[in-house]
Amino acid sequence: MKPRMSLLNSMPPWCGHCKELAPIWEELGEKYKDREDLIIAKMDSTANEVESVSVSGFPTLKYFLAGSERKVVDYNGKRDLELFRNL
Q1: What is the pTM of this model?
Q2: What CATH architecture applies to the domain 5-85?
Q3: Does Membrane appear among the keywords (predicted)?
């Protein structure tokens, strides 16, 4: 199986900024649903915790890069569909 890159949106259900991002995130997931090398994911960060990933605000967006080094990168750019589509 080919390594995958993942883009994770860590968001609690009460977060206003997360609710604004939700429809954009859903559309992004729909656009890339057939790509086997990319995962668009979201999780409720109040119910799930990943020890190796720091979350200091919401929504927290992280890239998990494909490959043997399994590098995690923070996404700090604008949060609109056009920018996400060009990742």
Answers
A1: 0.80
A2: 3-Layer(aba) Sandwich (3.40)
A3: no
